[in-house]
Each structure stands twice: as C-alpha cells, then as structure tokens.
Batch of 2 targets.
Target 1
Amino acid sequence: MIDASKSIEACAAYYGEEASSMKEYLLNGEKNALALENRGPISFEDNGSLSKSIREAYSKYGFYIFEDVLDQDELEDIKIDLENLRTQFPTGPESLVSADGGPAMNAESKSLTLVWSKPLGDPLGGTELANGRHQVKMFEPEAKDDAPMAVPLILLGSLQFSDACLRTYAHPKLLKVAESINGEDFAPFNEALFIKEPGIGAAVSWHQDGVTHWDSENFDEEIHGFNFMAQVYGSTAVNGVWVVPGTHKVGKIDIKKLVKETGSERIDGAVPIVCNPGDVVICNRQILHGSFPNCGFEPRVTVNFGFHKRSSVIGTQGGGIHSEAQVFDDEIIERRSRSIGYAIEARKIKYPSEKPYSYKPFVDAGKSYQWNQSSREDLKDYNLEDLSI
Ligand SMILES: O=C(O)CCC(=O)C(=O)O
Ligand SMILES: [Fe+2]
C-alpha cells in the first residue's frame, strides 16, 4: 500500500481551522477501508462466472478492488500514452493549441473532451451541470502561487486518444467480469480519465451516478451499471474516490441534507478506495461517491470505463449527461459497441499469446472488426453516442 501519511498531514494543513478534523477523517477512513473484505485477485467459478464470494462482497459494499490486474508493462504503456497526451493538451480551457503551438489533441473534436477546473477547485459541486447531481460544493483549498490557472480534471472519449487505454478496455478478465454482472449482451457506457495531479487536482463533489432509472418499477442495485476504475499510480485517502458502502441499494440520496446533518462534507461512514498501481476497482454507479481535491504528494490517474445491462439501455431516453439525450435503440447500441470490437483487436496485436475476449453480440451477428488507421478514424467523436443513463 502507498504510505499516504505525509500527504494526509499536508492535505489537512490546507483545511485551516478544520485541519485536525480533516486529518482524523482521512486516517479513520483509510483504516476503515482497509478493514473491509472487498479486495483480492479476480477469480471465477468453474462455470466462468465471477467468484461467488466476490459477487457477494461487491453486492454488499457496492465496490470491490481487483488486485494486480494490470501488469508492469501494461501500466508503463498507459503512462507513456498519458505523457504524450499531456504534451498535446490545449494550453487552457478555451485553447485549441498545445504548448508547442501545434493543434491540441481535441482541436477537431465535436464532442466534449476535457472538463477543466481551477486548481484544487470543485467545478461540478453545487452547479446544475450533470443534471445537478453534485448537490453540494466541496471546500476549495487555496492552491500554491505557482499553480496553473486551470487544470484538466476529466478527459472524455479517452479511447480515441490513447491506444493503451483502448487495449486495457478489452482486458479479457475485466470483460468477463462485465459479462458475469451485466449478462453476455452487456452494453458499453462511457470511458474517461480522471486526472488528479498532486497539489492541483480538482475535486469531484459527492454524487451518485445514474439519471434515468431511479424511479423505475424495475429499480435494483444494478440498474445503472458499474464503472471499472483502473489505477495507474494507485490511489489513497487523499487523492482517491471516497464511497459510502451500501448506498448503491438505497435509491436517490438527499446529499444536501446529509451534509447538513453531518455538519460538514466529511460524510460519516465513507471510506476511500485505496489501491496499488495496477489494481482495478469495480464500482457501482449508484453508490454515493466523490473525491476531495488532491492536496497531497501522489498523483492519481484513473482509467475509467463502464458497462451496462442491455435492458437498462435499450429503449431508454438517455440522461443527456455524457451525450445528447436520445432514445437508445439497437442501432445506436450496436454502433457504440464498436469500441469493444476495436479494442479486442488492438489488444490482440499487442498481446498475441493472450486468449482474447469473445463478445457474444458480435458472434451472434457474425460481425468482425479490425484495428487499423480507418478504425482509428472511425473512433473520432465516438463518445457523442455514450450510453448515458
Ligand atoms: O475519479 C473521481 O474522482 C470521480 C469518479 C466518478 O465520479 C465516477 O467514476 O463516476
Ligand atoms: Fe461518479
């Protein structure tokens, strides 16, 4: 485990009068997180379904940490892509050029690709963005004087910008988990990077994901799908996502009220998702979750990708957060699923001796994909059709 003790001290110091409460909260959260029985390697039953004990723990807590899923080479591959990508980021929220004067990575994008924040800010909290689901504003500590004016927090449509992320998206064990939880006809959701650089990375205020099915007569704990969160550098109490275990089962939570009752944004019962590099979290989208600004010394980059049950998406009027609201029909789902087809092929090229994942909807439809320059072109703006529910 990463030793976050120095970061906990440094982070708490940003909280002024509340420094000692913050320090205690971070330390307690870390301790409570490590006491939960929800981490270990991915394992399957003989019939190929996810191990019963993992399934049960995931259902109980709403998240589970798969340890050591990405090996050193795969992590290195992602890091190299991230470093390259960073050099091609626009110089600021309104810019179309990167620092070297060339076109930024998203200069031609029609879709939303970067969400920016002031350093250590909370760009979503207390706003109407994303259907107002981020109901409260987190405390925004003052960043140091040398911090940039704006920092990228979320990169959307990541598969079009990073081949390494594309390959990880087709990790055969992870797709097998997706199949086990959402059925063999599982559908994609969206893919993103959450970027939390030390001393500047912004907060993601407390929220529950999911828009469309809270009042559904078929509501259950799985109806809004899940996210995989692959940790490139690991994650700690200071820079990681915090969750309130079990809240994925209880429906929509009045977060404003909860924070008022608690007397601060340090919600009772929450724990940080503590990971080593290469761990991949499965996190129920309905769980109450959020992350504090990264006032510590360790970076966090999460390679985030989610999946749904097909029945949650088909015929559903999209939630409008990650893409224009539209009714998702077979054609849109099939088109959006090409990301899975390209990813499996891209992964095959890099890992020829690995048994690739076989996606049942392609087998049934007799569809095959290739990964080449024209498929890369075809992925441009693919996230305009994220299956946002
Ligand atoms: O990574 C974070 O800080 C927030 C992630 C999140 O909200 C999500 O994956 O839904
Ligand atoms: Fe979220």
Target 2
Amino acid sequence: MALRILAAVLAAAAAAVIALPGECPAEEKAVYPASLPPGLQKGREEGEFESTRDGAVMVYIAEGEFEVGSDNADEDEAPRHKVGVSAFFIDKFEVTNEQYGKFLEWWRKAPPAQKKAYSHKDEPAELDHTPAFWQKPKEPPREGEDKSPAEAPSGGAAREEPVPEDPVTGVTWYSAFAYAGWAGKSLPTEVQWEKAAGYDRRTKTVFKYPWGMQKPDFTLLNFLGNVRKPTRVGTYRTGVSPSGCHDMAGNVWEWCLDFYHKDFYKSKAGSTADPVNHFPSPCRVTRGGSYNSDETEVRCAYRDRTRPGESFKDLGFRCVKNVPPPGGEGGGSGN
Ligand SMILES: [Ca+2]
C-alpha cells in the first residue's frame, strides 16, 4: 500500500515537472518589436539591441500602462496614477566617458549647420560641450608664444583623465540634449525613466527600488558616499531593474527631457498618454540619485530638478529611442 502511494506521489511529481514549462504565464514571455527603428540593430545578447551611432546597448520597454508616482512619500510624487506609455528603447547603462568622447570629437570638427541641428534652441552660445572636469582642447600656439603651454588648468592641479567605462558627468542638460540628438536618440521623459527603473512587466507591479522592495545596501548600488565617486557603469549587477537597466538607482543622477514642475503628476497633462512637461520652468528633471544620495533619493519615484545650464560631478544621463508610430518620424523627439 505504502509503495503504491509512493509511486503515485512520484508520478505526480514527474507530471508536475513536465507540466512546468506549459504553466509559464503568457506575460513572462519576452516581447520584442516587430521591426527595429533606424539606427538600431540586434545586440549580442538575446533581448538586447545596439545603437549604431554611439554603440550603446539598449533594451526594449513594451507599450502599456503602469502606475507612476507615489502616494506616501514626497508631495510632488502624488498622486500615484496610471499612464499609458508607448513602446521605447532605453540605454542599458548610463552614457560613458568613452561614448561621450566620440560625440565631442565629432562636435569639435562639425560644420556649424550640423551642430545647430542637434542643439537646443536655448543652448548658451559659449557652450562647447566639454565636460566640466575634462581638459579643454589645446589652442594652437600663436606666433611668438611659448609653444609648451602649462598642462594644468587655472585652478592649479591637473585634471584627472576620464575613465572610459565611467559615466560621463559634468555635462549640462544642453550637452545631454545635443548628445542624444547626435546619437539619433532623445533624453527620456521622466515617466519613461520611471517605467524603465521600476516597472515589472511579469507581475504588473512597480518596485520601490529597481531591484524590488529590499532596503538599499552597498551590494545593490553606489550610494551614500560609500565609494565617493562614480563606479564603472554596470558594476552593481544585483541592482538591475526589471527591464534590465543598470544604475537606475545611484552612481550618477540622470537628466530627463521634461521641465520640472512639482504639480506635474497632479495635472491633466501628467495623466495623459506619454506625458512630458514642455511647459517652461527654471529646472529640468533629474532622476535616480547618485553616489552621494541617501536611500530616499534612490527610490524609483523620487523626483528632483537641476538648472539646465549647471553641471555636477555626480550628474550624467542615458538616452531613449522612441518607436515611431506607423508612418511617423524616426529617432528623437523635440524639446
Ligand atoms: Ca544613475
């Protein structure tokens, strides 16, 4: 009798194992676009794509509603509400010094008309897009001048050589905007950014932090002054977001496309499909916190802002590529 029961249990267990793949919920299957927008090709890994202009690895965020904001934290995050978001691709990592260097090389040689095509209309005329902590290009020595100008800038100490795999920092919003245009991409809207940071398509829930609800610690992200500088992009593999993006929490803050307004999530404009705040204000949105941030600032729903002409050592960006609607225009988007 006992043997017969054991056999039945074993048979049931075997059946359960065989049945497992069939029980996989439909929404867990990866969703990919039917075709790729110009400037994007399949990446080396399954589910990854590569931007042909800057070589950035991108992931796909399928079209669909999600709940943006938060009801029990800062006032400007409320109310938590549903918004529809069209499909888009987003950089898996923050833009690196190496990638930004390619843009800068192009920029320094490009004819004015081409530069203008990627510049924002409010961009200050004197901006040359060199990050604040990089060496300016050397001017050729004039007739009769010392032909070996000092290496050190006026501040005294020589500037550090940027690490290629580190996120670029010290860039204004205008520089991030111009880079995105050059790369055939755009800056993320803050809602796109928030969806890529915290939305889990499999469970249709939004995480408090990119990795879930677990309290932040030094194995998950670069924050709280532990390292005191940016780390190479993608260092914290356990802190990856459900969509596969790295460093959405911490490392460096990230510029977004929108003007910041504290009541944007309360407004009608903030509740429509694909919301973006184009209504001018003194600041643009910055998201995700940095290596200096506390656990409040690295939440997916946390909204911050910075004046677009300012640059900081812990502020960088990543880009998105919008999927054009049928018959629509490609790549980037407006101001
Ligand atoms: Ca970040």
